[in-house]
Structure to design on (663 residues):
């Protein structure tokens, strides 16, 4: 098949089957071509669906795309532990490394669990799929809602933290923090709209620079400790005063454990993104997950060990207020991040290596948002296929990316950044509840999975997942309890709201399917024998009216023209001309003293259908269409308003007959 320009927009692949070529997707109008060119400039040349298998990630790129969230958490995980334990004084700080070891053990359990999940569920979906398949639909929806919320918060927290690093270095940019955050999200959206392969290329370098600089810092620090003859496990007395307000107890240690468990946020990302890996997908994903866990544990434990050894202290706003209330001097160095303090100690001040660590940290905090941009759209598409989210989330754009999911995530993150003024400390209380909820449901689901299948070694696998489920459940409860009033209630409430919304969406799709389903496909297609009653609204005698009337007469002999007016003299003139021009078609003139068109027209249809309850009514609308976009503003758009009014009328068909103006 050829278009008017001689190009071949379709290729015949089988009898009755055509394949649309790239030419068929190119707009013909000037405005359409301009927008198409802008899209190509921003997101690249469209890719065919058949090219999807080539848009896969190698293990090295996947580590950057899916692990930046988890790996970047080492920038604040240790200091979150310190923030809790400093209130118990030096005794509390002695538990920084033991708590970190416990978190690393939890990381090992979660990693082993998710390796099993990846093998059992290679199509992706992670906690949502596992919970839905093994615990039921409600649990799956809770896991899905918790993860989606956490992905949005990951973008907002990571971007705001990255912007905070920039504004800390350049104080003049502080008034523009929100604008910088929105710009960063926009760049992330465009990068991901180009497709996952380009996304991996764009974001791989900063991730590996961060890994290299942190590992270099830890190596140099450990070498210095060993060459000094000191014991690594013996901590220095903190130089900064400690805001002691409580003794060391089990609840305080649990709070520190829960706070430091933010190091695990993002671990589930790889299990959600298995389909994005090169074949064999699940094996490559499992290897990448192991790499990530080893790197994360190494950096996290190394930072905690050095921080304890050097007596590093970190103050937040609450700690500062406690010290000031006690009349103690606030050490300004302790207001810097733990990673910043360690880099200064290890590298001997704020030199080039220190700045490299800081800029690499800033970069990966921003790029941690990319994990959410990889997983939120994919999880949303899985839930949409199941009927729990709008089906628009299954749409793949020009570059095979889930366009609507990417845009929705970017938009929601922007809303949070504006509402919370891109302040990380205001967003943190909402964070981590969702991811640990999904951890718990996923591992509880895997317990039932192994129990049901009873494969070789199922008892060991079930025991591992059971330990993980209990541990993550405790962490979830502690996080929710300690942060509920400061913001976690928003995440909990929103999770409940989303679950209810998911069920209502599914109920709608089920109802639509029931109403549209053909009861018996064995019966032949029924054809209406009675022609419809056709109504043509007429404003004047012109070519648009002529085209609509001619088309109406081709549908049925029962055609009636309707003219609604508040000027009877003009209406009488129209009647006389109508009789001479189209006398065989009856013209009904309706006087409208209140100058309304839509209302009287709809009431006329009501009366028509009341007198003919079994008749099908077809409204044929004459409409002339200006060539230029701005010219639409010069016309009343009556046809458009009438189409909107007729949209929800039962047993009424609306046919638009456009007349395209040539000038």
């Amino acid at each position: 098949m050829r278009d008017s320009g001689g190009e071949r927009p379709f290729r015949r692949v089988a009898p009755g089957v055509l394949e649309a070529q790239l030419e068929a997707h190119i707009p013909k109008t000037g405005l359409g071509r301009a927008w198409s060119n802008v899209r190509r400039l921003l997101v690249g040349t469209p890719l065919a669906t058949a090219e999807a298998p080539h848009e896969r990630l190698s293990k090295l790129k996947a580590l950057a795309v899916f692990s930046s969230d988890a790996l970047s958490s080492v920038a604040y995980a240790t200091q979150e532990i310190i923030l809790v334990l400093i209130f118990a004084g030096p005794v509390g700080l002695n538990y920084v490394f033991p708590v970190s070891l416990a978190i690393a053990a939890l990381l090992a359990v979660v990693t082993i669990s998710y390796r099993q999940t990846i093998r059992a569920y290679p199509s992706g979906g992670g906690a949502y799929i596992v919970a839905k398949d093994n615990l039921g639909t409600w649990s799956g929806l809770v896991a899905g809602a918790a993860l989606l919320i956490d992905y949005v918060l990951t973008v907002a927290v990571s971007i705001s933290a990255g912007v905070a690093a920039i504004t800390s270095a350049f104080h003049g940019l502080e008034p523009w923090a929100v604008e910088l955050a929105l710009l960063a999200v926009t760049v992330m959206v465009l990068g991901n709209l180009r497709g996952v392969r380009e996304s991996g290329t764009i974001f791989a370098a900063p991730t590996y620079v961060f890994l290299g600089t942190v590992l270099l810092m830890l190596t140099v620090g450990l070498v210095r400790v060993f060459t000094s003859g000191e014991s690594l496990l013996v901590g220095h007395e903190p130089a900064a005063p400690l805001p002691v307000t409580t003794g060391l107890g089990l609840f305080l240690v649990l709070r520190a454990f829960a706070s430091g468990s933010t190091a695990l946020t993002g671990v589930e990302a790889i299990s959600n993104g298995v389909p994005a890996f090169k074949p064999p997908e699940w094996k490559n994903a499992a290897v990448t997950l192991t790499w990530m866990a080893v790197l994360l544990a190494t950096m996290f434990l190394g930072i905690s060990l050095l921080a304890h050894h050097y007596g590093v202290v970190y103050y937040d706003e609450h700690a500062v207020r406690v010290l000031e209330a006690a009349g103690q001097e606030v050490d300004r160095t302790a207001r810097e991040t733990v990673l910043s303090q360690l880099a200064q100690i290890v590298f001997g001040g704020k030199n080039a290596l220190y700045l490299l660590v800081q800029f690499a940290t800033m970069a990966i905090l921003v790029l941690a948002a990319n994990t959410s941009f990889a997983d939120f759209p994919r999880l949303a598409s899985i839930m949409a296929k199941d009927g729990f989210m709008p089906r628009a989330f299954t749409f793949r754009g020009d570059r095979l990316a889930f366009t609507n999911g990417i845009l929705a995530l970017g938009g929601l993150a922007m809303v949070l950044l504006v509402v919370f003024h891109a302040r990380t400390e205001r967003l943190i209380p909402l964070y981590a509840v969702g991811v640990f909820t999904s951890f718990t449901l996923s591992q509880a689901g895997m317990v039932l999975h192994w129990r049901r299948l009873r494969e070789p070694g199922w008892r060991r696998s079930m025991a591992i997942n059971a330990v993980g489920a209990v541990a993550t459940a405790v962490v979830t409860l502690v996080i929710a309890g300690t942060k509920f009033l400061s913001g976690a209630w928003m995440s909990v409430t929103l999770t409940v709201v989303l679950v209810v919304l998911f069920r209502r969406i599914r109920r709608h799709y089920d109802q639509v399917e029931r109403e549209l389903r053909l009861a018996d496909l064995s019966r032949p297609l029924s054809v209406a024998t009675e022609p419809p009653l056709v109504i043509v609204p007429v404003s004047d005698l012109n070519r648009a009216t002529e085209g609509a009337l001619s088309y109406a007469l081709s549908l049925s002999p029962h055609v009636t023209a309707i003219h609604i007016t508040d000027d009877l003299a003009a209406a009488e003139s129209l009647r006389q001309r109508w009789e001479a021009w189209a006398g065989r078609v009856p013209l009904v003139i309706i006087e409208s003293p209140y100058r309304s068109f839509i209302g009287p027209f709809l009431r006329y249809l009501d009366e028509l259908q009341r007198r003919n309850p079994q008749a099908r009514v077809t409204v044929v609308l004459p409409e002339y269409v200006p060539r230029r976009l701005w010219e639409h503003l010069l016309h009343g758009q009556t046809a458009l308003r009438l189409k909107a009014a007729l949209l929800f009328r039962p047993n009424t068909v609306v046919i638009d007959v456009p007349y395209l103006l040539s000038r």
